[in-house]
Amino acid sequence: MSRDLMYSDEIRDLVRDTYQNLSQPDGPGLAFYDEDQVAELPPGARAWALGVGNPLRHADITEGDTALDLGCGSGIDVLLAARAVGGTGTAIGVDFLPSMIERARAFARENGTRNASFRIGDIEDLPLPDGSVDVVVSNGSINLAARKSRVLAEAIRVLRPGGRLCVTDLTLNDDDLPAEIITHPSAWAG
């Protein structure tokens, strides 16, 4: 049984406030990557690795693909996907925080990555046409969305036939938790 204890706008505000108020983190998400996979990334990008896994490990991204990262944050998975798709492919990152998009663009420039683009947008309403990507990845972002089923529907909408979806995320059985825990800002944005 699903309980809607908070409104979408409240959840978005909690997530926005949490991530806008982060000082430079210490790369907690790097633990999920092989050192050689991230060694050439700019130090700032490594420090802002906030994911909860490594979706690229199982995404089967190949040369020429168009890859999309939902909730890309500072862009570490986009930079790695851009490397995997090569010069004939494209990696796209979408995040609703302009500050994260600015940071991701700066890291891409610093890294010399030319086949990556970043767009401000809501992963519940992707700013991409139907059937436009080969691979969708997400790393700890779907859990931050108010309407997770909407995010998944959008991912399916933008995938080409035969496309792939690879997600690493956190899950929770909210039937076992009291409302004061479920609605706490740390539960949505931590």
Task: Throw out a few tags for this protein.
single chain, 190 residues, alpha/beta, 8 helices, 17% strand
Unreliable stretches, pLDDT < 50, 5 or more residues? 1-5
- The secondary-structure class comes to alpha/beta
Radius of gyration over alpha carbons? 16 Å
Determine the number of helices (DSSP H or I, runs of at least 4 residues): 8
Number of strands: 5
Distance between the termini: 23 Å
- Average pLDDT: 87
Largest sheet, in brief, is: 5 strands, parallel
Order of helices and strands: HHHEHEHEEHEHH
Which of globular, elongated, flat, extended, rod-shaped describes the shape?
Answer: globular
Into which percentage range does the β-strand content fall? 15-25%
Q: What share of residues is helical?
A: 25-40%
Work out the oligomeric state of the chains in this entry. Answer: single chain
Q: What spatial order of strands do you see in the largest sheet?
A: 3-2-1-4-5
Structural write-up:
With 190 residues, the protein is an alpha/beta fold. Helix content is 35%, strand content 17%. It has a 5-stranded parallel sheet with strand order 3-2-1-4-5. Mean pLDDT is 87; it is low at 1-5.
SSE layout:
Elements: H1 8-20, H2 35-38, H3 43-47, E1 66-70, H4 76-85, E2 90-95, H5 98-111, E3 116-120, E4 133-139, H6 148-158, E5 159-168, H7 179-182, H8 185-189
Brief digest:
It contains eight helices and five strands. The protein has 190 residues and is of the alpha/beta class.
